[in-house]
Amino acid sequence: MPLDAALEARLRAAGQGHLAEAVRAADPADAAGLLAQVEELDLELLRRLVDELVLAEPEAHDLGHIGPPETVPLPTDELGAARDAEAAAEGEAALREGRVAVVLLAGGQGTRLGFDGPKGDYPFGAVTGRTLFAHHAAKIAAVRARYGAALPWYVLTSPVNDADTRASFAASDWFGLDPASVRFVVQGTLPAVDRATGRVLLEAPGRLALSPDGHGGLLSALRRTGALDEMAGEGITTFFTFQVDNPLIRVADPVFLGHHLAAGADMSNLAVRKREPLEPVGVIAGIDGGTGVIEYSDLPDELAHARDDDGQLVLWAGNIATHCIEVAFAWELTEGGLRLPFHRAVKKVPYVTADGAEVRPDEPNAVKFETFIFDALPFAGASVTVEASREEQFSPIKNASGADSPESCRRDCNRLWAGWLEAAGVRVPRDTSGEPVDIEIDPRFALDPAELAARVGPDLVIDGPTALGPAPAGA
Ligand code: UTP
What we know:
- By secondary structure, the chain is an alpha/beta fold.
- It has a single domain, classed as Spore Coat Polysaccharide Biosynthesis Protein SpsA, Chain A (Alpha-Beta Complex).
- It has 15 helices and 22 strands.
- It has helices at 5-13, 18-25, 28-40, 43-55, 78-96, 132-147, 162-171, 217-224, 227-233, 254-262, 301-305, 327-334, 390-393, 406-423, 449-455; strands spanning 66-67, 71-72, 100-105, 153-157, 182-186, 189-191, 193-194, 202-204, 207-208, 210-212, 238-243, 267-273, 283-287, 290-294, 317-326, 343-347, 351-352, 358-359, 366-370, 385-387, 439-441, 466-468.
- It has an eight-stranded mixed β-sheet.
- α15 (449-455) links the parallel β21 (439-441) and β22.
- It starts with a helix and ends in a 7-residue tail after the last strand.
- The mean pLDDT is 95.
- Bound molecules: uridine 5'-triphosphate.
């Protein structure tokens, strides 16, 4: 296929001349598609990323002065309870007045889980096989009903899973929600490059190896697609972001919203206590007088293990990528291009060679570029970090087995929901090791223990796996 000389010159200047050859060599059926992908590349950005993150020697960067973050702790006494009640009132008012939207981060590739399809379609429910999407939808429906809130739901997808995600929502009749209240936002992609040469890889002779640009891409996607305008037009000032793979999260929790709003924060975080010093989660820390997140891969062991006088981890605050963000702050961060730094991720990426041979590497061969939403924190004028109970709010499905897997998530859901039932006076059978039977509580039946206690009592008999509430759509 003929190639525009100016484009070829730009490709060569960017160190990507092999893409000109690939377009020329592509089958006529593939050539137009490949050319379109090549034309879409931001070659100036790519040049910079390759120079700084692939070809340059990685620099040991100074982490700055690190300490524990300032947090709103879990309530342990009346004072704490009163403080949270005050925050809840503020958060509830914002929900009632329609000032809040929720944004689900669901653009990832879910490579570790290895599930065929969008991660949100994963049937995590122990009893009904409810999917993550169905469960999040039920929570959103319950929050809307409780507060009479509009609470539009933005779902961040990526070109990898956008069509499948939309199809899944359509097939489940938008999980009973008004389709106009569910809005899809597609994030951008960046090419994976060879880690030795920085040349863009092709996943097939007519196709570049593209992957989502990281969850920081949420901000540019919200701006590019007009979602930020839409929010502003609807009087939304704040959005709550959460991850698709954590079914326990309290979606748009008024307490968290309230602390964020009361502090006049630009961006706030939810933190859980780390399970162990080297748990692979980022840590929220005080950095040079502000707040930031250090990725676990960047955290020196010595810092990860540091303990205070009480023997507690100094950097205890695990980041669970759940934030409240001001719409105005998202505007600021994306003015004239996204202001977040790029990170490199070294991964195994299958590719084809110039003569069309397919290679499935055994070792990481490629670099992907990603931005992270938490890198926005240092730009925030004010920020609040609120501690959340891990047992109540965090059990992600990341891996196919072991820690943070479907199995551990199912166990944590059972424990939590059995605890709610027992607090309501219901007897729940447990096995010899103390684990309860499989339980599911639909958020539309009860969003929290108090609501459950208002609905059920000691006369409820549970003698085997039990699901309470309406059957989830699409399960
Ligand atoms: P993770 O990186 O933990 O999970 O993303 P993943 O991408 O689903 O799975 P792996 O790493 O390939 O195994 C955390 C959250 O951020 C979203 C994911 O969908 C998940 O909810 N995410 C991640 C995006 O929305 N976009 C991205 O580019 C990356």
